[in-house]
Amino acid sequence: MAITRISEFTFGFAFLFEQTQRNWADLVAAPVLPSLKQEEEEGWDANLPVNGTEFYYQFKMTDYLRAAHAKYRRTGPEKRYDAPYFRFSLHRHNANQQHQRLRTLCGTKPNTYYVAPEMPDLEVFNTVFLARQIANSSRLIPLTACRDYFDRGQHFVTYQLGDTGFTEHSEPTRKEGSARGADIEGLYRRSSAAWKPLDEHFARTFFDETRSLIERDVRSQDKPRTRRDHVEEDAILRVMGEEPTQRSRQALIRRSAELASLYFGTTLTLVGSPADAG
After folding, report:
1. pLDDT tens digit string along 214-262?
2. CA 230, CA 117: separation in Å to the nearest integer?
3. Does residue 135 contact residue 151 with C-beta atoms inside 8 Å?
C-alpha cells in the first residue's frame, strides 16, 4: 500500500537535487537548504538566479490504494475513483495547525505546494530514483486551491496517476490545477511575470517580510491555543528576534529559509534566470 522505508527527507532531497541538475538553458531552480553548512563554504549563492521568485515546498509521502474495497473506491456516498489512487494525510495535530500555517503562507506566497510521489511502490521508487526521474514522478498540490481546516479531524488529499485533478477529504471536494512533476519547467516559466532582481534589496525585504508574516500569525487571536502552543510560539518569537550575524544577501536569504522551515515546515527554492542569461 505505501512506499515503505522512504522518508519525506529522502524524497524531498532527491526531488530538489534533480532540479539543480536540470539543463533548462535560461532557467534555474536553486533550493536553499540552510542545514547544509557545506553550501556556505562552497559559495552556493553563486548559483542563485539573478532574477526570479520564491517557491515553497512541503514534502509528503503517499499510500497507493489498489484494492477494490479501498475507502474512496467503495460504492455509496464516498465513492470517488474507479481505479487505484494515491493518498497522503494532513497532520491533524493542534487542529490541523501545520496545514493552516501553509494556508497562511500561500496568502502572500502563492507558489506554495505540497509535493508527493506519483509512484505506486518501492520498486518503482527505486527505479526512478536511480534514473534521476523522481521529480518527473511527483505531484504538486497548490495550497491556494486547498480548503481551511480548523478542526481536529483527519483529512486527506487523493489523486490518480496522470490526472491533474485532486480531491480533498473528509468532505470530498474535487479540485483542478495540481501540477505533474514532468511539467515543472512550464510551472516555473509561468511564474516569470512575478520575477524580480534577487539582489541585496530583495534579500533584506524578503527577510523582513518573512519575519513579519510569522509574527502576525503567531500573535493572531482568531485561533484556539493551548498552554503548549504559547510555549512553542514564545520560543519561535525568540528565534525570530535573533538577527543574522551578517546582513549580506547570502545570510539574509539563508535566514529567511530557516524561518520558513522552522514555522511553516517548507523548503525554499528560488527559481528564475541564471547569471549567464544575458
Report:
1. 988 887 756 566 666 767 777 777 777 677 766 788 889 988 999 999 8
2. 35
3. no
